[in-house]
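Record minuted for completeness.

…
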Amino acid sequence: MKGRRTRAKPVVKKKFVRVKETLYSYRDGKIKISIKPYEGYLVFDVSNAWFWSRAKGEMGELILTEKFLIIT
């Protein structure tokens, strides 16, 4: 029935964020993800990563979890 919900509240299963292209920048081997506009950001240095010499083309989507940054 429309407008009625079950007693159970929604539960978060996996904590992750897909980062839009407008929210990150890549420069000099560092990925900078903005958290708050003009205030907070995270910086990841990937220039010395083992996979960087094998990577080709453009960077795709970034997925940020509690422990990892996944680059697709």
Remarks:
- The chain has one domain: 16-71.
- The chain is about 0% helix and 40% strand.
- The beta strands are 16-19, 24-27, 30-36, 40-45, 62-65, 69-71.
- The first strand starts at residue 16 and ends at 19.
